[in-house]
Design a protein that fits this description.
Largest sheet: 8 strands, antiparallel, barrel
Radius of gyration: 15 Å
Distance between the termini: 31 Å
Helix content: 10-25%
Number of domains: 1
Strand content: over 45%
Shape: globular
Order of helices and strands: HEEEEEEEEEE
Strand order of the largest sheet: 1-3-4-5-6-7-8-10
Structural class: mainly beta
Length: 159
């Protein structure tokens, strides 16, 4: 499963790099966020009782000047349960809104399905928000805001 997920992220990133539009900073132009990356959390990051270590993500979306967005955001949060068991929390999101800033940040949001990887039923319709640069990712699920994760490999393109 991990190998398939990583392969999907790599393919999504390659497609994003090949078809990325030229960079834009004008507020009246559409833009995009594409890529596949791994980001690491500092010690102490947690979602519920799961101590998080990393975030593997894939993103491909277009953001329009009116604030609408279309595309996908997928992430796998890796960590450990309080009993030391490895856990993977899978997030599959549909991007509905977004904005690009002149300083190179992208903000996007939508709804996602979240599988906590512990045998509980998958949750659907969970609101998510992401703020990203080429080097960092901050994810919020519903009212839980995770700490910033630093990109350690892969590429995020904000155009």
């Amino acid at each position: 499963m991990k190998r398939i997920t990583c392969t999907m992220f790599i393919i999504l990133g390659m497609v994003g790099v090949l078809f990325a539009p030229t960079p834009t900073t004008a507020a009246d132009e559409s833009g995009s966020v594409t890529g596949a990356a791994r980001a690491t959390f500092a010690a102490g990051a947690a979602l519920g009782s799961v101590a998080l270590s990393s975030l593997d993500l894939g993103a491909g979306m277009f953001i329009e000047p009116d604030g609408s967005g279309t595309g996908v955001f997928s992430a796998v949060l890796t960590g450990q349960s309080p009993l030391g068991q490895a856990r993977q929390i899978t997030i599959d999101g549909e991007v509905l809104h977004g904005a690009l800033t002149p300083d190179g940040r992208a903000h996007f949001s939508g709804t996602a399905t979240v599988n906590f990887g512990d045998g509980t039923p998958t949750l659907s319709g969970v609101p998510f928000n992401v703020t990203t640069t080429a080097n960092s990712v901050r994810l919020a699920l519903d009212s839980t805001v995770l700490p910033v994760a630093q990109v350690s490999s892969g590429t995020l393109n904000i155009n």
